[in-house]
Amino acid sequence: MPAKPNPMLPWAAALSALLAVAGNLLGLPTLIFVFKPATTLLIIAWAWPRGADTPVVRRWVLAGLWLSLAGDVFLMWPQQGFLPGLVAFLLAHLAYIVAFTRRVRLAARPPAFAFYGAVAALLLWQLWPGVPPALQLPVLAYVVCLASMAAQAAVTWLAARGSADEGLARRAAIGGLLFMTSDTLLAFNKFSVPVPLSALWILATYWIAQGLIAASLRTPRTD
Predict the structure, then answer these.
(1) Please, how many CA atoms are within 13 Å of residue 29, restricted to the half-sphere of its CB?
(2) Would you list the DSSP string of 8-72?
(3) Could you tell me if residue 187 is inside a domain?
């Protein structure tokens, strides 16, 4: 009989996230180094028992979470770790795309891809002058993967409308949107203009996004 996710884990993740944000805002690196990876690890632990009914989807969602954890660790060094972190999160988005395409084929709802593509193009147009030449190609590849992940998450929701899986798919879609929001804030903060309280908004939207993507896996039945 599969175990149900521990209901205390989301609360523990929220507390850990608050401590990580506090570390960023107050300039306390010890809090960042402990609680930033701890928050993502707690989300992984909460996701672990979920999705037994869709093992392939579960495998790729967990792969995305583990790759995100690697990206979290790399980005604790904003200069030296930026490019490795970018690659880790790019791979995480590819893993999420694979997970979401196990539910419905890639770009099955073209308007979702058109919308996210237009948003991504507008954001790149705004950011491009501030992106160093050495990072332009990696940033372009990353934005394409990020927008495709968010769009495919939206596709899963649109395809599931009216079905028993609509609620789960909605979580993935909102998670994809929030992930794109988080990375947009991070990119503007790094390449354009400083975002007030950037750590709060970037990390809050990021971890809510990850939690929602994890929550798009079904809770196991124990009866």
Answers:
(1) 5
(2) THHHHHHHHHHHHHHHHHHT-HHHHHHHHHHHHHHHHHHHTTS-TTSHHHHHHHHHHHHHHHHHH
(3) yes
Kindly indicate the confidence band of residue 1, based on its pLDDT and cuts at 50, 70 and 90: very low
Q: Is residue 47 part of a domain?
A: no
How many structural domains does the chain have?
1
Domain that holds residue 129: 54-215
Structure confidence at residue 72 (pLDDT): 97
C-alpha–C-alpha distance, residues 188 and 153, integer Å: 23
DSSP for 147-192 reads HHHHHHHHHHHHHHTTSTTHHHHHHHHHHHHHHHHHHHHHHHHHHS
